[in-house]
Design goal:
7% of the residues lie in helices and 42% in strands. It is mainly beta. Among the domains are: 3-43, no CATH class; 69-165; 391-729, Single-stranded right-handed beta-helix, Pectin lyase-like (Pectate Lyase C-like). The longest helix has 14 residues, at 78-91.
């Protein structure tokens, strides 16, 4: 890998760490420090980043009152192994089965078919292989089942023997290695699959609208299959983490699964790396290399977020056929980087993609200069209409280094430049100290990108602080603001707002300090950033938000709002998915020291939103909360995955790390998925608190350590310390 490419990946992946003063020892390993990331990238192009997935830990698999039956299977045929499973099920159909495989199982005329509530743990050298002349269609078939896990005892990504002798070996006679059909709550971890005639893994789910019966694939390798590595259909919230899928005939990952997450996965040396057919997919920090097509956002896809991926050495990097995708901060290096199409898609600040790469309709191009990327590219913006004319740049310097300048003078200068240069993007360098003294605030015109090398201080005491916005970014087309500080001791409704606009919005690397007094509603300020009624792509990335008073980032009555790698502290709550916010995400944020509410809050019937790999620490209320208070209906179809939630000395006795519930029977939290969250050192009411009017949610693969109480379930009577009536299923530790 070239030095330039290493530097690009450093910029893409290290925002949440050293730049914002987060100590490396206090955060999860996937928040990489610069030296660690640089050393990793120098070793190998196709070496994965540190795992997102953490091995789950819980003293029970399903429920505290469960009966576990341990079964050991050595070398034998699949029919003999199936006979053992059948006998155990006939003797005790209500038990949980933990099956340890210590030998080689040979599949001849029928696959091995586990029952519901069965956990397979494969020891070192244990395998399932197709026998010579096998007539079975698959090696393992999970049919009409729920709550099944398969776990290997060695990591196939690094263990050399597993590469030579995969755990599931189709011998080029079996169609499918692992078949999952009409089944859910299935978790596959540390498995290797190879040499299947068709698919390594095939999933046909129960119902794509049900988020309580998903499938996950973690720390797994799939290779040398004739068609697809993993083909997923009709199954919601499919999660792939820390895996390698290579050398298949068609598609490494074919996903028809709303709210899917693919992270830290290598998809290489195939016809196509990743195909997305559904809504709200997150593709984050993957390597998609040496395919004919890297990423295909197919016709049925919508609201995809493709962020911080390496997409290189493909014939075509990304193909747009769907709608409203946001593809940003990726590193491209392909024969052709982009094939445009679909509708209302956008490319943000991708390394290796120029405006000349984007010709045709369906995809907008936005590459604003920012404080961390002061490039001199001549074309900043091209809309998605397909009109060949692009907006070039017009550079403006507003210098207040010698004498403080009123923001009204800045507004006057910006409007004059806009009128004199109507067909350009204004690239404005604001240098020095600026002060706001009026209701007017600082307002950016259409097609304007500002880099602030200095600060804007608000001293205006608004007559109506319920509507005053310090920075307005509502111009048409594109609008960005990067760097510097926004400071206010006076009450503001929003320090920065894109409310009621439809532009391509970017707030990047800005420090917002509102000096709020907090401790309850009525604090001095209300929002640091507001996206209310914004319907273009709205990105807040790499910002430092302090003392916002009430909310740090307010996602309200909006779509496609993305909080990416921000640090938010000392507010009421940091990130708020509020009423009628859909198709949005919070990724890689650090949220700390919120005073009276949650680090991240899903409320008032929001759906199709995701919180992935955030770090929530020392919040006096909840780390992450999902709740319905005033709006009749359901807060549903949201995914909360791989977040780290830690306590602190300020944790209140009646608060929890992860909390979900609703006010009444017509205001519920249900049909949401909580996967592999780490809850540590929480000394409040419980690490996981399930309140009344929470139902049908799925909480799985959690890692809990050092908590006073792990689970408190108030949704049943009498209350229990388990998941009873809320679906909870965990894979046993391979050491247990």
């Amino acid at each position: 890998m070239t030095g330039t490419f290493i530097r690009v990946l450093l910029c893409l992946c290290a925002l949440s760490c050293s730049k914002y003063g987060i100590a490396g020892d206090s955060v999860p390993s996937w928040l990489l420090s610069r030296p660690r990331l640089e050393n990793l990238l120098k070793r190998s192009v196709t070496e994965l980043f540190p795992d997102f997935y953490a091995e789950p830990s819980l003293p029970f698999v399903v429920d505290p009152d469960e009966q576990i039956v341990h079964i050991e299977i050595n070398s034998m045929s699949a029919n003999e192994a199936q006979g053992i499973l059948d006998t155990c099920f006939e003797e005790n159909s209500l038990a949980v089965f933990v099956v340890r495989v210590t030998g080689v199982i040979e599949v001849l005329d029928a696959p091995l078919s586990p029952y519901s509530k069965t956990c397979f743990v494969f020891g070192k050298g244990a395998r399932v292989i197709a026998g010579l002349g096998s007539t079975a269609k698959s090696l393992i078939a999970i049919l009409d089942r729920d709550s099944v896990s398969i776990t290997g005892s060695v990591d196939p990504r690094v263990h050399k023997a597993s590469a030579r002798e995969p755990m599931f070996y189709g011998n080029n006679t079996i169609d499918v290695g692992l078949q999952i059909e009409n089944s859910g709550r299935v978790h596959i971890d540390r498995v290797s699959i190879a040499a299947c005639q068709q698919d390594g893994m095939r999933v046909i789910g129960q119902d794509a609208s049900r988020y309580d019966c998903p499938v996950s694939l973690t720390r797994t390798t799939i290779s040398a299959c004739g068609e697809n590595g993993a083909d997923v259909r009709q199954s919601s919230a499919f999660i792939v983490l820390d895996s390698k899928i290579t050398s298949v005939g068609r598609v490494a990952l074919s996903i028809d699964s709303p709210s899917s997450i693919v992270a830290n996965t290598l998809c290489a040396d195939s016809d196509t790396g990743i195909v997305v057919h559904s809504s709200d997919a997150l593709l984050v920090r993957n390597q998609v290399v040496r395919n004919q097509v890297g990423v295909c956002l197919a016709k049925q896809s919508e609201f995809s977020l493709v962020y911080e991926n390496m997409i290189r050495e493909n014939d075509v990097g990304v193909v747009f056929d769907g709608k409203e995708a946001t593809v940003g901060w990726n590193a491209f290096q392909n024969r052709a980087d982009v094939r445009v199409g679909g509708t209302k898609n956008i490319l943000y600040s991708n390394h290796g993609v120029s405006a000349q790469s984007v010709s045709g309709s369906g995809v907008a191009y936005f590459n604003p200069p920012t404080a961390s990327s002061l490039h001199d590219e001549p074309v900043i913006w091209r809309d998605d209409s397909g009109v060949t004319k692009s907006f070039g740049r017009h550079d403006v310097v507003i210098d207040a280094r010698r004498e403080e300048m009123d923001t009204r003078e800045v507004n006057r200068r910006l409007q004059k430049e806009r009128e004199s240069n109507p067909d350009t993007v204004l690239v404005v360098m604001m240098q020095g100290a600026f002060v706001n003294k009026s209701e007017e605030g600082l307002s950016l015109p259409d097609h304007t990108c500002v880099i602030l090398d200095g600060k804007v201080v608000n001293v205006y005491q608004a007559k109506d602080p319920g509507s005053f916005e310090l920075l307005r970014m509502k111009g048409k087309g594109c609008c960005s603001f990067s760097g510097g500080q926004l400071i206010s001791e006076q009450k503001v409704f929003s320090a920065c707002s894109g409310a009621d606009a439809k532009n391509a919005f970017l707030l990047d690397g800005v420090s917002i300090d509102l000096h709020a007094k907090h401790g309850g509603f009525g604090s001095d300020s209300v929002n640091a950033v507001s996206s209310k009624k914004h319907y273009g792509s709205f990105v807040v990335r790499g910002c430092d938000i302090r003392d916002p008073g009430h909310r740090g980032i307010w996602m309200h009555v909006s779509k496609r709002v993305y909080a990416l790698g921000n640090r938010c502290s000392a507010g009421g709550f940091s990130i708020d998915f509020d009423a009628y916010c859909f198709h949005s995400a919070a990724i890689f944020n650090t949220v700390t020291r919120n005073s009276y509410h949650s680090g991240i809050f899903f409320e008032e019937c929001v759906n199709s939103n995701t919180a992935f790999a955030n770090f929530c620490e020392k919040n006096s209320a909840n780390g992450i909360c999902m709740w319905t208070e005033n709006v009749q209906g359901k807060t549903e179809k949201n995914v909360v995955a791989c977040n780290v939630i830690r306590g602190g000395v300020g944790m209140e006795a009646n608060r929890s790390g992860l909390s979900l519930g609703g006010r009444a029977a017509d205001r519920t939290t249900e049909n949401n998925y909580f996967f592999n969250n780490r809850l540590e050192d929480l000394n409040g009411r419980s690490a996981i608190l399930i309140k009344k009017h929470a139902r049908g949610n799925y909480i799985s693969q959690s890692s809990l350590d050092g908590n006073g109480v792990n689970i408190l379930n108030l949704s049943v009577k009498p209350e229990t310390n388990g998941f009873r009536d809320q679906v909870g299923f965990h894979s046993p530790s391979v050491q247990q």
